[in-house]
Design a protein that fits this description.
The structure holds two protein chains of two kinds. By secondary structure, chain A is an alpha/beta fold. Chain A has helices at residues 3-12, 84-92, 128-134, 194-199; strands at 20-23, 42-45, 49-53, 74-81, 98-101, 105-107, 112-113, 137-141, 145-146, 149-150, 152-153, 168-170, 174-179, 182-189, 206-214. The chains are: A alpha/beta, B alpha/beta.
Chain lengths: 216, 217
């Protein structure tokens, strides 16, 4: 299985029936493909609706319905539209159970940097700062390294998106939980070892006992 | 009072150096015909308040590419490479604002509030130069209201008194921006007679709207 699919599939297991979830663009979008059939997860699109459905077929595109990445989507029965002030009231007000985002860097206390690289890439934070502060649970869905360099650091060096808001990090190598007592490796992929993970992780982490094997 | 005007009459109200609010999310909900009118008129040194600069050939992106924007307040510019290029070359002064904070600052501007407290941006560059307050042990930033000279709104269905109904995800920043400018001009995708929009379905009451124009898109 492609590592991005592996990450998305594992993240999808975090949700419970009735959860309201906001998925970031890129890898996090794939999570929607792996939600279990026996639960209902309500996807919010921060540009103004809940109960977002999959992309339409080409002949069924409605130009008035796009996701937060500007791509055509559909809405499911029970959907509701609202304006941006209400949408971000939903987000900051704690009405979103979980948000799934990518990361440039994350550190062992849960600081996140995912919105700019000074001098190189300044796209803007969009809704990310509000989402990370407001969602009850912040899950990062990310590849473990960037061109071989660790992304899970002792301390972020890039400008932060938010301080100490990350709860869970899911990579192709394992699942980490950020707790007040430190970062804990909860699950490990079947094709790696703790030593291999340590070699590409700058942050210190505690290995859970028992350490679960991440399901494929 | 006459509210329904021509596109030319609308353009007569727009001038160099004005602060203009333009809604839309990647162009969805943007009054495209009014933007095209601004491009054609060539007014410059504009201060634009919007959430994103779409793409070079869509919505607000066209004003950027045409060099008409001097100051930009936005939450995301990454989808229009021209905005970043012009920012790096010092041609546009860009202030990036978290999207929820941007919506709420405009709402505050239209609702008579002196500002509001938000946890968004605490511990990041967003807090620079802002007053920080602690309420019940939690840190907040004091964010101030935003207003404009003109708001250009896009309604899916608009009656001749300016009552507006928005379809699907086009609502986004339209409702807040329609409350926060001295002059509010709405572009009607479909223009209807008074009474054709059920008062229960009016999303922006016509009292906020000064002028109505008919859009092409």
């Amino acid at each position: 299985m492609d590592i991005r699919e592996r990450i998305a599939k594992r993240v999808a297991k975090e949700f419970e029936d009735g959860d309201i979830v906001n998925l970031g663009i890129g890898l996090p979008t794939l999570v929607a493909n792996y939600i279990k059939d026996d639960i209902e997860v309500i996807f919010q699109s921060e540009n103004g609706f809940v109960k977002m459905g999959p992309a339409p077929t080409e002949d069924a595109v409605d130009p008035d319905i796009v996701n937060a990445g500007g791509l055509p989507v559909t809405v499911l029965p029970g959907a509701a539209y609202f304006d941006s002030a209400v949408s971000f009231g939903i987000i900051r007000g704690g009405h979103v159970d979980a948000t799934v985002l990518g990361a440039l860097q994350v550190d062992e206390v849960g600081n996140l940097a995912n919105w700019m690289i000074p001098g190189k890439m300044v796209p803007g934070m969009g809704g990310a700062m509000d989402l990370v502060v407001g969602a009850k649970k912040v899950i990062l869905a990310m590849e473990h390294t960037a061109k071989g360099r660790p992304k899970i650091l002792r301390e972020c060096t890039l400008p932060l998106t938010a301080k100490k808001e990350v709860n869970l990090i899911v990579t192709e190598m394992g699942v980490f939980e950020i707790t007040p007592g430190g970062m804990i490796l909860r699950e490990m992929a079947s094709d790696t070892t703790v030593e291999q993970i340590q070699a590409v992780t700058e942050a210190d982490f505690i290995v859970a006992d028992p350490l679960k094997i991440m399901e494929d | 009072m006459k509210k329904f005007i021509s596109m030319d009459e609308a353009m007569d109200m727009l001038h160099d150096g004005m602060t203009v609010m333009i809604p839309g999310f990647m162009g969805v909900g943007t009054p495209e015909t009014l933007v095209d009118g601004m491009v054609k008129k060539g007014i410059k040194d504009l201060h634009i308040i919007c959430t994103d600069t779409a793409r070079p050939n869509i919505g607000i992106g066209k004003l950027i590419v045409n060099g008409q924007v001097k100051k930009l307040y936005a939450s995301h510019i990454g989808t229009n490479p021209e905005t970043g290029r012009m920012m790096n070359e010092g041609l546009i002064d860009v202030t990036l604002i978290p999207q929820g904070t941007l919506a709420e600052r405009i709402r505050a501007g239209g609702a008579g509030l002196g500002g509001f407290l938000t946890p968004t941006g605490v511990g990041t560059v967003v807090e620079e130069g802002k007053q920080k307050l602690v309420v019940d042990g939690k840190d907040y930033l004091l964010e101030l209201p935003l207003t404009a000279d003109v708001a250009l709104i896009r309604g899916s269905k608009v009656d001749r008194k300016g009552n507006i109904w928005y379809n699907a995800a086009t609502r986004n920043f339209n409702t807040v921006m329609a409350t926060a400018a001295k002059i509010v001009i709405v572009e009607a995708q479909e223009l209807v007679e008074v009474g054709e929009i059920d008062p229960n379905n009016v999303m922006t009451p016509g009292i906020f709207v000064d002028y109505v124009v008919k859009g092409d898109a």
